[in-house]
Amino acid sequence: MTRPKAVPGGFGRRALIATAAGASLAGTPGRSRADTPAVKLGYIRSTARRPTISLLDKQAPDDGLAGAKLAIADNNTTGQFMNQRFELSDAPVRTDDEVPASLETLVGQGIALILTDLPAAPLLKLADDGKKKGLTFFNVAAPDDALRQQDCRNNVIHVAPSRSMLADAVAQYLVWKKWSRWVLAYGSHPDDALLADAYRRSAKRFGARIVKELEYKDTGGARQTDSGVAQTQKQMPVFTQGLPEYDVLVAADENQVFAGYLPYRTWDARPVAGSAGLRPVTWDPNSESWGGTQLQDRFIRMAHRTMSPLDMQAWVACRMVGEAASRSRSTDPAVIMQDMRKPGFGVAAYKGQTLTLRDWDWQLRQPILLADGRAVVSISPQAGFLHQVTALDTLGIDRPETQCKLK
Amino acid sequence: MQAEMKQFAIRCLALAGLLAAAGWCLPAWAYTAYVTNERDNTMSVIDLDQMKTVKTVPVGQRPRGIIMTKDGSEILICASDDDTIQILDAKTLQVIGVLPSGPDPETFALHTSGNPLYVSNENDNMITVIDVPARKVLAQIPTGVEPEGMAVSPDGETIVNTSETTNMAHFLDFKTRKMVANVLVDPRPRIARFKHDGSEVWVSSELGGTVSVIDAAKHSVTHKIHFDVQGLRAESIQPVGIAFTKDDKTAFVALGPANRVAVLDAQTYKLRKYLLVGQRVWHMAFTPDQKYLLTTNGLSNDVSVIDVASLEVVKSIQVGRLPWGVVVSPK
What we know:
Strand content of chain A: 15-25%
CATH architecture of the largest domain in chain A: 3-Layer(aba) Sandwich
CATH topology of the largest domain in chain A: Rossmann fold
Mean pLDDT of chain B: 91
Number of domains of chain A: 2
Oligomer: heterodimer
Shape of chain A: globular
Number of helices of chain B: 1
Largest interface: A-B, 21 and 25 residues
Strand order of the largest sheet of chain B: 3-2-1-28
Mean pLDDT of chain A: 90
Shape of chain B: globular
Radius of gyration of chain A: 21 Å
Low-confidence stretches of chain B: 16-28
Strand order of the largest sheet of chain A: 1-3-2-4-5-6
Helix content of chain A: 25-40%
Distance between the termini of chain A: 29 Å
């Protein structure tokens, strides 16, 4: 589910294809009339790209944006019965330096509800800059727990799950399988350290034991090389040689440096989970339960590709706005946000239950799919992990442990 | 219980023997139920006299919605993954034709006069209106996102369609084929049912966990029914199927993964009882005499038989995998 973080100065292929900042994308042209009151959304998204181990994992140029566009179209279908119209302004940015200017462009168009596909630091700055202007941001990408803890903000709604939610989703399944002895292999990037922390916390929380930790150093270089496969076949067994007895290898590699090489190559025959093998995601192109097939079909028809977790997160964010607009019968951003923050608010997203907001950090509660790339293996929370309020709060930072003071 | 039933059966047989000996014709009170098995691409045929599956018929891919024509001569099945509606001869159980349903048909409703048929096309935000005898499309009407439930008012003047992502009950005028009202309900509305007197439409919201009672004349939600099953988390209570007794006094609501059918006083909306049935109960059908109510239990691959008078579950009948819809022959 995690996506590569912005690389300073990185120029993505997407930037070449992306529409100019602020280009307006009406959902279903012809269906809504120009004099219908409009709900305007913006989408500030990083176009920076990192290499991936598998060509299949290459991020689409419109990853996330396509999900938002579909939700806008869905909102507009509903809007024709409500006399409401939804518009989306795309604001792609190549570097973090471009973020303030793109915000200004969106604000200039009268937009107060903004999706962000940005790393934690520029998102925090946006949130603080936007506070005075009454802007609300929907974090659809950054998994940082800090954004939900000490750095939480009242005007940031977290649609993307946090690292601790993703780690807990994996941990519950592994414990249910009785694969409770883990080897934790993590990368050398700061994000990987944070993800490794999340897995350590999950292990403790759900009664698994990390019997050994391994660090895989990113020494740079190209990911895809001709005949590189021969070298990898030798490297990975050695990397995982001489480990104590264990059940499963848990990989924390957000930057796709090594985890993808682990399955089938470990010294001992062990399954891999986390950043490769059994992965925690908000969506998978295989998910077909609870009407999911309909969403997959609609998405493929529109975008001519399959729907990614980031697409799903952007879809949910726009649907939350649509849902709050129809429930409150208003197109005023302030009224919409007031409705969304009410305890009864929920949005359906093909997960078998409504997704609701945690009022202590504005994180969206959601089941997490565990997928192997071909099928949905399981969905967490797992049966048997109990909670006095909702089983969904067994994933991530719960109310009693929160350090967030919303302001 | 089983011994009692057996005894009862023996006594019945004895009685039947006596009647036959006396030269009486046996009344044809045995009904046949037809169940679509979504996973198996089959239809189970249940003899309600024997209370067991007597035949399994191969049908199209991913069979879901199932109804019978008014005269009971034909069975219509939504073969969702074949993008068609199959017509089966109720006597021979052979597929004798198809209807141009549009893509991915899931549920449908026949007009009270017996024709036309209203089909929800989940993928296209459309209602397809089909002339059944002529087997042709009369109209396609845009509706909300992911249309699902379909109901025709007893007077035939109004068609109600629910949309799962728009979260509305759309009221369509029979004559003009125009939407006359769109009523917002709780998330993921599945089934709409008119009371027999036409006064109210009940709409189940699978994810909202509620049933909205809509005044059919005013097009407004007048009451919301909530369910609370002791020992179950709120999110596992997911209402889908709704059925009213002919006198409109009692309502049954299938609660999905709660594995229960709620029995309600349909006048006061008060809960009378929860009946434990099979797993993930979705759709229901009465026998024409309303003695029994049958439920399809998707995850336990069976049909529960509810005795309507005593409000007891009297039997569970094994069918195919993932039973979805059920219909009972009128004779």
